[in-house]
Each structure stands twice: as structure tokens, then as C-alpha cells.
Predict the 3D structure of the following.
Amino acid sequence: MSKAAELAALIGSGQAQGDRNFIINGAHVISQRGTSFTGQGGTNGGVYFTDRWYTYNYNLAGRYTATREAITDLSGFTTALKLDCTTADTSIAADEQLSLIQAIEAQNLQSLSFGTSNAKRLVFSFYAKANATKTYVAELYKEDTTTSSQSHTFTVTSSWQRFEIPFNNTNADSIGDIDNNNGTGLYWVINLHAGSNLTSGTINSTWLAATQANRAPGCESFFDSTDNTFFITGAQLEVGSGPATAFEHEDFGTTLKKCQRYFVKFATGDYYGNNYSTGHSFTNIDPPVPMRATPVTTYSDARSTSTTDNTSFNSATRVSFYQQSQSAYISNPTADAEL
């Protein structure tokens, strides 16, 4: 095949086009919430670190610190997410889980054609390293229509490696479609620690029902030593059967806008309200981009102690703070519309 024909084939498949990466902030360049998060693991549920990235913690005895790290030992990348074990756990309860996750908005995944005979194959790629050799489990998890998953093991070492993990489309025609809405379509998951509830079965190497026991067989424990670290950057999920294409770098502003659809930390400072009647005011702030959904808003300070974060007045394009005070203000607001 000529070079021109190869390029035409790539363009036709979408692989040569920009914006092919379903992952947002794959290189961890945006971190609006901060750059260091200590004492993690004590609360069940999801905790966000760098933008769009969170860990799911469940019943953990171990603890860890998450940091957005400056790196100089991987060409083309300047930042990574680092997890560092600070409290070990060598007696793993059946229901323990530590997973690093990005939830992907469903309406961005319609081109995958899941639930049809044209369902696409996917390639999951990323750079990772650790303090020592360790095997973890990469997983895609789908909830819409039929809860399904597919998992594959990978082994990190103390040097950066690029992992290219093909996710086949076997059974993808029978697991149902992904809803065309602003909810979660897929979870991009790295399982780092799992009890027997997640590891006692046979790994789902094709798209199958997301039986808990089949999601992470072969996963070793991030918490077996306080020496353990895990670094990740350059994450990409794209259509194809492999090999993965080069990581799709984009300018800082583009990545920031994509992240701000889900979370906005407004510029530091005071925001003054507009009086609408005696003893009452609204402080209105417009997000820089339309948000995924009506956000939950917070602030760090206010003029009036009776300030109310009245979410009934919020929308994807405006957040409002109602205060029972004239000439009121709020400080350092945020808006959260994460999946």
C-alpha cells in the first residue's frame, strides 16, 4: 500500500485525526484542586486528585499520598500522578479495593457502536513505573444496559514503560449500547489493590458480565510495603486494534477547558453580589465553559454568616450564591459537575 493510501485509510478510521483520545488530562498537566493529597484511603468512595482522575477506596487499612509530580526522566512529559504507600496492609479483607479511575462521559463514546455488530476495538495505553516489579490490572467497566467489564494484567518495573493493552470487541455486540447522555459511559480503571471479592474468579479477557470476582484476578497489592510507589502519565484510550498511536499532546488551554466542563476553581479572590431587595443579594459567576451538569458549588469565606449555597439557582452556565445580606461577597468559589 502506498503512503498516500495508508494515510487515507488512517483518516477513514479516525486514527489520524486529532482529538482521538477519550481520556482527558492524560498527562496530568491540570491539577486545579492542588498538587499534594496526604492521608488518603480512610474514607470510602471516590477522591479526585489531578483533574478528571480519582481513586476509588473501599474498606482500606492501608494509606497513601497522591501527588502531581514534576518528572524529568521520561522524554516528552513533564508531569505524572504519583501514589505513595504510607501505611502498609498485609492482611487484605475480602472487600478491599484501591482503583485509579477516569469516568468517561457517555455521549463522547457513541462512535464505539457498542451493542451492534460494528462495535469497535479499543487500545488502552499509558506510561507507568513503580519502585519495584509489581503486577496490576487494567480494566474497562461499562454500566449502561448491561454491566460489563474486560480486564488485562500488566507488570510495572522501576523504569518507565509504555503499556499498550488491546481491548477486543468480542461480545461487544451483545453487552448493550452506551446511552447517549451526559452520564458515565465507561470507567477507565487501574486496579492496584483488591481483596478476594475481586480476585477469586477468572479474569474477563473479553467483554463479559462484570462479575466482581472476575474483575481483577492476578492483581498484586500496592499496600504490601511502605516502599511502594506507582507513577502514571500519558494515558490514552483510542479506537483500534493496536499498536497504539503516539500520545496525543495538546496545548495547556485546550486541556484546561476540557477539565473545566467537570470542575472549575475560579480565580482566587472575592466576588461581590448584586442586591435585589433589602437585606438580600445574589453573587452570580459564569463558568468559563458550559459544565456537564448543574454543579455543586463551594466557597471559603463570605460576608454574611447566613450565606446559602442555593443550588436551585445553579445551572451548567451560571452558579449563584444567595446571601441574606446587602453588599455581600463570597471568596474562592468552586463548581463541581464531575461524573
